[in-house]
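Sample 1 of the test manifest.
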Amino acid sequence: MNYTRIVWAHLRKDLRLEWRTKDSLNGMLFFSLLVVVVFAMAFDPTAFPTIARQISGGLLGVAVLFSAMTALNQSWARELNNHVLDAHRLSPAPASALFVGKALANFIFVMVVELVLAPVFTLFYNLHPLGQPWKLLIILPLGTWALVVNGTFFAVLSLRTRNRETLLPLVLLPISMPALLGLIQATTAVLTGEFEPTLWIKVLVAYVIVFTTACVLLFDTVLVGD
Amino acid sequence: MNVISIREETTRTTNTTPAAVRLERVSRLYGSFVALREVSLTLPAGSSVVLLGENGAGKSTVLKLVSGLTSPSYGRLTIFGTPPQQQRGRIGTMGHAPMLYDELTGMENLTYFAQLHDLGNTRSELDAVAAAALQEVGLDPSLTRRVSEYSQGMRQRASLARVLMAEPPLLLLDEPFSNLDFGSAHGMVDRLLAYLATPGSDGTPRTLLMTTHQADLARPLAKSTVTLSAGRVASISGEMRTGDASAEASS
């Protein structure tokens, strides 16, 4: 059984389901755009360009994290409909492939939202990065994957609980703090140019390696657990 | 303690072949509610058993345990000699829910599951397996309707196609005839009879364990019946020798 092909089958299925329902993307886009617009109205970013650069990283982090949360719950809820998750538990395909496929799908959904968010952010906050903007091409995917890989894992853990919508943020937020901090600090470093983002990129890389490995190794136990 | 041993006259298994299903003093509790009480049951490979009983008698619990979707609170359960969790892919389960994605078509669903069961290497091979499985249950593979737009009977048949497509040696069916009209139900019985008559690719005779409230429909399939009541075996009938039960109990 080819692992990559199984991951691709899960990923393609999730992309197809999202394309047909748009359940996750619509909610995420609405929420993240709301955050950007509300904060842009709360103060005049064009009058305080330095402050705008300093807080934009944090705003982006908040928008991404909370919008991702809605998608994470939604992605596993699909598997509960018609008890499809039971079919996965009985299938001979490696359980971790299901996890990797779903995490990749969630990663793509959040990246799509970030792509839409980037020009809106630049426009509303009149942003001109003073650091090296190309580093955002490393920081944003790394930070997004760090949030999504944990979120996908903890979302399946909370699946069988009664208040899973409440439980997921309670579990995910504390454990995602280092990743969130890394994402925010590295983004702020690029936008303000006041310090180098290298240290925070290293933090993100370490976080991604450790948590991706742990989640992939533990997923089988979580899936087949009673 | 209920101890039932089912021996099929026609079984091709030898004494060295592990039983398809073996429950030894299995109990299952949900909180303080006892769904199953110290049930012992042995199904040799090739047997065909129908579980009967009222709602809440424990029929679905037995199927969930045997499939490995839940574990016994007490007792020991093996499938072909190992815990059910080690038999993933060899146990085909059709439950009350179809275990299909509503937003995909029947063909898309089956192609996806065919890939998870490693039933083909190329796209065309997977499509061929899925199309054949749908045709065998009387569904048109070219149907572009999503499963959410299927009737209950069509969902049931698509679910059966998903299960049979992987050719599992152990088949677990929970109320397979509910929501089916008379003709469709008989069609499903015929399909199951044909499936059970053919041994698997490794020569293992196929085993069926199913629950139903429609005993008349299940009669052609049922070589043995076990009636459950309040989590215990109330009666047995068909090709069973209860004499084995006492021997097993004393051992």
